[in-house]
Structures are given as structure tokens and as C-alpha cells.
Fold this sequence. Notes:
By secondary structure, the chain is of the alpha+beta class. It has one domain (3-475): Gamma-glutamyltranspeptidase, small (S) subunit (Glutamine Phosphoribosylpyrophosphate, subunit 1, domain 1, 4-Layer Sandwich). Helices cover 32% and strands 20% of the residues. A seven-stranded antiparallel beta sheet has the order 6-3-2-10-9-1-20, with helices on one face. A six-stranded antiparallel beta sheet has the order 7-8-13-14-18-19. The chain has a three-stranded mixed beta sheet with strand order 15-16-17.
Amino acid sequence: MSGAIAAPHTAALDAARQAGGNALDLALAAATTLVVAYPHQCQVGGDLIALVREPGGEVRAVLSAGAAPRGVDVAAIRAAHERMPGQGPHAVTVPGIVAGWAALAGMGATQPLDGHLRAAAALAEEGVPVVPGLARAIGERSEAIAGDPGLTAVFGGLREGDVLCQPALAATLRTLADEGIGALYGGPIGERLAAFLRSLGSAMAPEDIAAHQPEVAAPLTAEALGATWHAAPPPSQGATLLALLAPEGLTLERARRANAARDRHLGDPRMSPVDVDALRGALAPASTGTMPSPRPAGDTVAIAAVDGEGRAVTIIQSLYQHFGAGLLDPETGVILHNRGGAFSLEEGHPGALAPGARPPHTLCPAIVVRDDAVTAIGCQGGRAQPQILAQVAADAADPASDLAAAVARPRWIVGGGDLGRERETVVAEPGAQAPEADAAAASVAFERLPALTGMAGQVQAARLGPAGLSAGSDPRADGGAIVL
């Protein structure tokens, strides 16, 4: 079957090329490979949110976002911290990525998941060269790596071009291939991870991991820019993306209001109602000051795939920050994410920490349909993902656009603590048409960056249109795009 895929690492493209099959097969081959080749951004201990479009046109969201332990002592964490810890055992929620893969495989993949897992295990054992993005992450997070024995043993001292071998992770991936995902959710891998976390002070229990189930849900949908847009529902910030789609493009005021609405209203609808209309309408005053979540620092990978039948898949999988919570379990080789760092400690907030709650999620995949064209698109970029996608939205909605050129174009974003800035700031890449005058008028800081940077996201896009299959991969990453 013909298909197109874009991914942030060339090893993922190699895996997709060898796997063949439909868009789901291509995407899953890439996704399982990336936990080995790009482990600073995604790993077995992370989460997954995806969108899948069937050839007949139905779109479904897969939300495999893990929850906080049911035994978490919220009062104790509030007493000890002004804000939710962004690192360490309390920032770890149940890993959802593996269950997400299984859910996606069951939605029409032609190849079994265990084959992808075995291929990824072989790569982990044989080793993969350290690419520039991973080398930068090792340097940026050197203190966290040095502070954790598991991370030090695997990543300590590695430089670009060195070979990264992960034998413990290879064994874990083989166990998952041999025994199924029950080895994690209710089996020995989950028991080991829970014991590891509890030894560090977490309330995580094997039962918390065993209880995880992906949610398959209807997407949020909007008509914008002449196309139909599909985005993931809460706890994803997909509604924030829909709030930013406008003919005039991204504006500073709209971005600030959307940020504020997300921070005020986004949470887990399983725990309490989420005001989706307020999120979609960006109904909150523009905020000032610092942002409450940790700096994204290359938090995520996006994979976009389509095939000749009109099937489209966007997978986003994540550790949140580089190397997640800064914890690697030496026995399993699994790096744990720090998605729990996005919880609020404010009582009554929709995103408040609570037993069994899922944190507000930055992962924001999208599928765009216009006439006889379908485009799968997603990006890395933390809380700025909706802003990043909004700047390529017109091209995503235009079947005649050049996706490679669109994802490479300079961009700007606005944030605060999530960008590592002490105050609300617009950061702009060279050549970006950024709202410098608007920032000055709103007393928002403005900073022109010296070069293209992962801070402005890494967009992956693939399309089936009147001209056939095409794809574009962001040059800010280490990957590419192929048509098969």
C-alpha cells in the first residue's frame, strides 16, 4: 500500500519503510522506534495522544494519558510545595504510551504490534548513534542525568555520534512483545516500576498501573480556513488550537487569551466538568507574569502518516521535559515522564491534583480535511503547540501547499515560565513576522532568537491530496519525510 510519513528521527523512517502496510502500520513502526532512538523526548514511561481518520471519514481520538496514583497524599504535597513538583517521583503519573500503541493497533493496523516491539528491541540492543537533538538534551540536562544513577549509567558522557546501547530497555521491549502489554499493566514490568517509584517516595502502586485504560473518544471539530479541523478533547489542549484558527493568522492577543483560558479551564473531564466552550472561545483575560508549568525543553515527538486509502494518523508521545522526571529505572531501562508536573495545587481548579486524575495535557494532534484532501499534523513544543500549529494552519488547510516549506518557516510563540522566562515573553525566530509592536503595547517582553530552535516546535505533516501523497518534516528535528 502507498503511504507517506514524517517523523523527527531517520531511524523511525527506516522502521516505517521496512514495515510497510497502511498509515497505522507506518506510524506504529515509527513510534516504537522513537522510544529507542529519541529517548530524551519519548520513552516507554511516557504518554500518548493520537487521532486516527478511517478511509470512510470517521475520526477518533485515542487518549492514553496516565493518572495520578490513587493513594497520593494531596494535602502532604500541598503542605510541602507551593506548586506541583516538576521533577522526581511525585511528578510521575501512570505511563500510557504502551496501552496507546495497542489501542491504535486495534483500529485497523495490518501488522501485529509485537513485530514493531521486537524491531525496536533489536535497535536498543545493537545501539543507535546519538543525533544532535539527543546530544543537546544530554548537555542541557546534565545535572539531572548526574543526579540519577539510571540515567547516568545509560547517558552519562555520551556525545554526538557515540553509539547509545540500552540493553535493559531492549529486554523490556522483548518482554512486551512476548507477553503482551499485560506485562506492564498488571504484570512484572508494572510491578517493578511501582516498586522503584515507591522506593523514592511515590504513592504509585501496581494496581494504579494495572488499572490504566486508553480512552477512545470523538474528537473536537471546527470549520476554519475552508477546512474541517479535528483535535483531541480534554485533558488535551486541542480546544486551544481550535480557538486560534482564524483567517488573520495568529495574533498576540488571541494567543494570550487562549493561554489564559487553557490555564484556567483545562482539566480531566472524568473528575469534574471542563468548560470546552470557554477553551474554544479563548474566554479569559490575557494573563501576565510567570506560567505555572515546567519548561518544555523538547518534550515530545510527533508522527504524521497517511495512506492511499485516505487513512490518516497523528501520534504524539511524550516524556514532557527532556528525560521526563529525571528518573530511569535501571532494571527495566524505562524513563519515567513528569506529566504530573502539570497538575495545579489550587483547590477547585479543573486541573487540580487528585487521586486517579489525569493532568492537563499539552499533546495536541490534528487532522485537517478539505474536499478530497486529508492532512495529518502534529508538533513538539509543550504548551505552545497550539500557537505553533496555528502558524502553519493555512498551509495545512490548503491542499496545494508545500508541507516541507510550511513546517520550515520561521515562527514565534508567547509564554513565560514554560519558556524558561521570568515574565511573559514573545520569542521569535529570525525572519518570523512577530508582533513586536503589539508586545510592547501590552507590556510583554520581546526576544529575537539567533536561529531556528526547537523552542518554536518541531512540526510533522503528511497529506493525501489531489496531487497524491506528500509529507514535510521540520528541520528543527533530526528526521525527515518519505513517500512509499
